[in-house]
Amino acid sequence: MKAAVIVFPASNCDRDLKVALAQAMGRDPDMVWHGDSELPETDLIAIPGGFSYGDYLRAGAMAANSPIMREVVKKAQAGTPVLAICNGFQIATETGMLPGALLRNAGQKFVCRDVDLLITARNERFVGGFEQGEVVRFPVAHHDGNYYADEETLHELEGEGQVAFKYASAEGELTDAANPNGSLNNIAGIYNKAGNVLGLMPHPERLISEELGGTDGKRFFDHLVNSIV
Amino acid sequence: MKARVYISLKNGVLDPQGKAISHSLQGLGFKNVLDARQGKTIDLDLKDMDRAAAEAEVEKMCQQLLANTVIENYTIEMLD
């Protein structure tokens, strides 16, 4: 299996993502610079976290218009799986690959901590390694993670099983206290209609070994790689 | 030719910065403040060109980059 990690100026989770993918795949992913206009042949595209272009204008706005993203959008439309984490999620919404937008956190503060997440929809490729209704723990680290979509879009996301993860208590309850950023309906991650693009604010690549504090991220990547191979 | 683009969050979209501003103003004793919304302006310096064509081009810029129409409204003002 081959994977490509897109690297923007001020991406800062690209190497974490490389380590997580390499651990699961047994080989390094290709690191692809934002200014490139061609993608190498790949079975998975990963858009990492960070502060691409310094979050100028809006988080992800500049990166969404970089040359490589035109290719990423084309590949996504053709069915290539895309994993968009944190700033990657913001970029994916800015390109229109995913609906809605990520606003400034409701509490105004940068939030950096582990969160519990309820797996809310079936998607064999991305979360087939978990049970639906299972609670997993990934860290969040963001200032603009407050998911917003208009009512009609929210209704569609919920109705079509496009909500991937919701912020929850350790017991899986969708409480306000468990919501770190004010996201509507506690939404932490969503799929596109076709189910081949996943965007999420939490960072599975940061919990891939006991030494780092947990292995839910390792389970996520191991399954993702197995399902693509 | 100059153009000014005003960008604001749509009604109903939470604006935590605007909320903080209104709370601060109220805390300073400006009791008449009911709410505040924060936006931004972008001033563009354009080549001399036909005014209508320039406005149409700025409109495209707003759609493609300057505003995210999922959450933001924009208005364009041609300045000269």
Description:
The complex is a heterodimer of chains A (about 230) and B (about 80). Chain A has about 230 residues and is α/β, with parallel strands linked by helices. Helices cover about 25% and strands about 25% of the residues of chain A. Chain A has one domain (about 5-229): Rossmann fold (3-Layer(aba) Sandwich). In chain A, the strands form 2 sheets. Chain A has a 9-stranded mixed β-sheet, with helices on both faces. Chain A has a two-stranded antiparallel ribbon with strand order 5-8. In chain A, helix 1 links the parallel strand 1 and strand 2 (about 30-35). The model of chain A has no long low-confidence stretch (mean pLDDT about 95). Chain B has a single domain, classed as Phosphoribosylformylglycinamidine synthase subunit PurS (Mth169, Chain: A). Chain B has helices at about 15-25, 50-65; strands at about 1-10, 40-45, 70-80. Chain B is α+β, with helices and mostly antiparallel strands and about 80 residues long. The interface of A and B includes residues 103 and 148 of A.
Per CATH, the architecture of chain B is: 2-Layer Sandwich
**CATH H-level superfamily of chain B:** Phosphoribosylformylglycinamidine synthase subunit PurS
Secondary structure: helix percent of chain A: 25-40%
Alpha-beta content class of chain A: alpha/beta
- Overall radius of gyration of chain B: 16 Å
The total strand number of chain A stands at 11
Task: Provide a count of the helices of chain A.
Answer: 7
Biggest chain pair interface: A-B, 20 and 11 residues
**What would CATH call the homologous superfamily of chain A?**
Class I glutamine amidotransferase (GATase) domain
